[in-house]
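Our collaborator T.R. sent over the components below with a one-line note: 'Predict the complex.' Nothing else. No constraints on interfaces, no templates requested, no preferences about which chain binds where. So this is a plain run: every listed entity goes in together, and whatever single assembly comes back becomes the starting point for the next discussion.
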Amino acid sequence: MPGATLRELETAVVAEAEAGRMQRSLALLAGLTSGLSGLEVGYMHYRAGFGQRIMWTPIVMTQALQAAGIAAAIQPKLARTLLPAVSALTAVDCATGWFFHIRGIARKPGGWRLIVPNLAMGPPLFAPLLLGISAYLGILAARLQPEFSSASVPAGLRESIERHLCLATGIAALCSGGEALYSHHKNNFRYWVQWTPIAVAPALAAAAFARRGPRWLLPALSVAAMADGAAGFGYHARGILRRPGGHKHLIYNILYGPPVLAPLLFAACGFFGLLATALRGK
Amino acid sequence: MKCYREEEAVDYCIVGVGSAGAVLLQRLARAGFKVVGLEAGPFWDTERDWVSDEAGSHQLYWTDLRITGGSDPIALGENNSGRGVGGGSVHWAAFVPRLHPSDFRTYTEDGVGCDWPISYKDLKPYYELIEREMPAAGPAWFTWGDPHGYPYGPHPMGGVGDTLVRGCTKLGIRVCAGGPVAILSGSRADRPHCIYRGFCIQGCKVGAKQSTLISHVPDAIAHGAEIRDRSMVARIHLGPNRRVNAVTYFDRDGREHVQRARAIIVCGYAIETPRLLFNSACPGFEQGLANSSGLLGHYLMVQAGNVVAGRFPDLVRLYKAPPAHAMTEEFYETDPKRDFARGFAVQTVGPLPIAFAKQMAKAKGAWGWGLREVMMDYNHWSTLGVLGEILPAYDNKIELAEEKDDFGLPVAHVTFSLHENDHKMIRFAVKKVEEILLAAGAKEVVEEQRYAHLVGAARMGTRPENSIVDGFCRTHDIANLFICDGSVFPTQGSANPGLTIQALAARTADYLNQQGEAIFTSSHVSREKPPVRRDLSPPVTFGSGVPRV
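Returned assembly:
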């Protein structure tokens, strides 16, 4: 829309979303969050020495999903073919990863009887599910129409996608909040600000799951999650630079410092919430 | 486990199933040879025999009678010799840096020590192979020597590593965090990853730390090797045609046995190897077997292992994390600006309370209540170790003493003295480590003088006049007698020798495999370089880890 002001563009985009035409945005979101998760998986699995060959699969799948998401945003035809196929494969990979992570925790000395230390020290329980959310969004995007096309989306389908997006928001918030809970517990909640994602995450999930309640609640909490994620990213980056060796040992300190990308994934949950709000319409 | 009859001549009899012996045993067994390994110590049951306790782990060391002397005598036992299947690798801290290319040419490059008959390039493929078999964890890019990466990611650091990194960063010294160390940072096959309790040198009950007992011995047994533990080899027999043909050994009950073999490999480490060869003296080799050069026992080396401890106001908790988890090799090579040749590395060490108390008794002269007061501060101390290259000297040697052990065999008499270059290097190194600790924020710094590692005494070389073995660890004098352990090092660098010992063993095994029957039947010595055999590695070697940078 050449010549349009930012305000006009925003109005147009919101109108498109309300009409259920948001395939490009959703595909792009699926791809980018997958890429972000892929970086996180990459360095976490490297830290564990890629002790099992299967640990390479999410690295491959996240990059594939990122490429498919971007390709689908450019070419609507791919959004209905390549994107759901890659997303489905990624979802299967995530389910497999979740099984192995659960097994990893169970295998640690004391197994489930020592659940608190083993959750904190074992493979991250919710991480594969978080990646699964990106795959889920990819599958959802395939059902919608691209922005600024003349096609219309049936109201029933739009509502159904909106419900799915709410579900994705809720699950992602719980998973991300869960990760924050045991990671911050591992750090003994040294700063009060570490409690904020623990508070925001369940509230956002409740707002996303609830079919009733004030209409402003979900967007408000979504914005809060995004702000919290952005602040967390700043704190985590600061934590990395404060480690011995600071920026001179950047890669090592990213590897063992606070997980720098995790707050961004939390912020992404907030963005899912905003999309769901937009799809809900007036 | 397969059992061979004594009267049946096996292909190879390996004396000492330690770092090198177990690697040889595993590879030769996999290649289809009949191999017997004789080990003076026990075959450890890691679950029952090892404890996560300092005082309860003394049986891991070779603490039999040995006489030590010279103007700077070496303390023998705890931090140099192992006893039992796995040898010293059972109680090593598992630091696995490679030697630098310059280490193989110290005489040519710096005019000190002597050149190896082999180059870094010869050993490099075996370094890579053994680093995968262990596997070694470390940074993706290790910048010193011949730069390379490690197959497993680096470890998280403990407080000691933090102080080293903080101090080095402040002083602008490059430092490596989280390795290189042969401890699993992620699980592999049936071995779990490290859980950072700090009991590495007590054997590591967890199974995360590599010892040849857990990385190579199971595969050796699965392929038909026999290991006879608690079997103390007394002498090697020389048969006709200047070829060895049997060993005499005492079993656990003191009974004497003779095992016949078509070739013998001695892997007894730097003290027991020369001792056995001296004890095997016979007509034609009155000074000791394979000792026509008269150099057997000479050029014994240890590394300077001075520990510098700094007290910090904040908690360090030096027992958490493996003792070996960060290092710098910035001062490794000869620097014309310094007044000594060669150099040193600085590494983390994490003494547990008993070791720390001993260090403090020596370093501070602390005793009685004073020592108790120091020990109350245990968690506030950080300890960094120098690993300095002491140059080979003819008068540092091993001989036989008058005293005898329980089997009636003369024990080793070790003579060791430091020389001018060594003194200068140690002084400089200790000062540098003190600077690092002070830069990291230490309020008090003390130093304990000690040594680490033992190598040399049966050096390798190009000619029978200047060495005991050739570049493939074959003795110059006897075509079917090999020595493969730390004793063959002509110089030692400032790197922990464990990785190099295992890499040399892997290379020797490839040579033996390439030569095949010729080793047993011919006295012709081939100098042909063998192809690198990747198919002889233990089964899980290539199933994990990251591609090398």
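Summary for T.R.: Chain A touches chain B at residues 46-53, 107, 109, 244-246, 248-249, 251-252, 255-256 (CB under 8 Å).
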